[in-house]
Amino acid sequence: MKIKIVTDSTSDLPAEVVRELGITVVPALVQFGDRVYRDGVDLSTEEFYRKLQINSVLPRTSAPSPGTLERFIANSLRKLRLLSPSTSQPR
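User: That's the sequence. What structure does it adopt?
Assistant: Structure tokens below.
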């Protein structure tokens, strides 16, 4: 059975682990002032820390939107079979 791991970027997994295990990383959102960045896509770790040093206001963060998560999960599901164990039984 193949298992697919989907996490958001706040997990801060090393890139080699993500590649080796085929983990899908959904970017969290980081807002500096009026600008919103996708963590790890539009904003690298180095850029994040550089912005922290030059901005007087701390950034705001938010989880990926439900729609974004749904797209990432749907894309992952196309690549594997889904097994969803449940204690409830269909009627």
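Residues 15 and 23 are 10 Å apart (CA to CA).
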